[in-house]
Amino acid sequence: MTEPNPKIARRPPRKVTPAYLQRAALAYLERYASSAENLRRVLRRKVEKRCRLRGEDPAEFLEAIDAVVEGSVRSGLVDDVRYAEARVASLRRRGGSARAIRAKLTLKGVDRETIAAALEGEAGDPDADPEEEAARALARRRRLGPFRPGERAPHRDRDLAVLARAGFSYPVARRVVDGGREPDGG
């Protein structure tokens, strides 16, 4: 690979415009589901980078960013409730605890009420405990407890610790690690 010629100066990027912000938002939303606040952060980072390279003040584009985010929300491209529900379902299937899910959604800028509603509205068997199902899914994926090949007694404390670090309560972790495979069909 050849080194760039230091005598040739790079052209600064084009000026930030509302059309650029709209294109950037659509390009991001084509690839990723997002909350409104997360989209705002992504656009802010893009604007800050361009402004840094151009020597401009990014503060003058904050209103334009807000307008693009609001337009995305109005048009239905961004919906925090739908995003939270989809992320809860996805993270639960992978073995996410309610505590870990709350933390991840909070980092993405979803408010507490929306997170609580998404966790409360989990679909499924009304008799089943979603927290225990998620712990069981994590145990299966990580081969803990009843899913561990061979002798599992020497690894019990380690398996409990893995589930505790993932955000599951001790009673839930104990039921999963000490339980059998029957409820999963595995």
TrEMBL record:
Q: Which keywords does this Swiss-Prot/TrEMBL entry list?
A: Cytoplasm
Question: Per the record, where are the segments of Basic and acidic residues compositional bias?
Answer: 149-158
Question: Pfam families recorded for this chain?
Answer: RecX_HTH2
Instruction: List, in alphabetical order, the GO biological process terms annotated in this UniProt record.
Output: regulation of DNA repair
Q: Start and end of every RecX second three-helical domain?
A: 79-119
InterPro entries per the UniProt record, alphabetical: RecX_HTH_2nd (IPR053924), Regulatory_RecX (IPR003783), WH-like_DNA-bd_sf (IPR036388)
Q: Note whether Cytoplasm occurs among the keywords.
A: yes
Name this polypeptide is given: Regulatory protein RecX
Q: Which organism is it from?
A: Microvirga thermotolerans
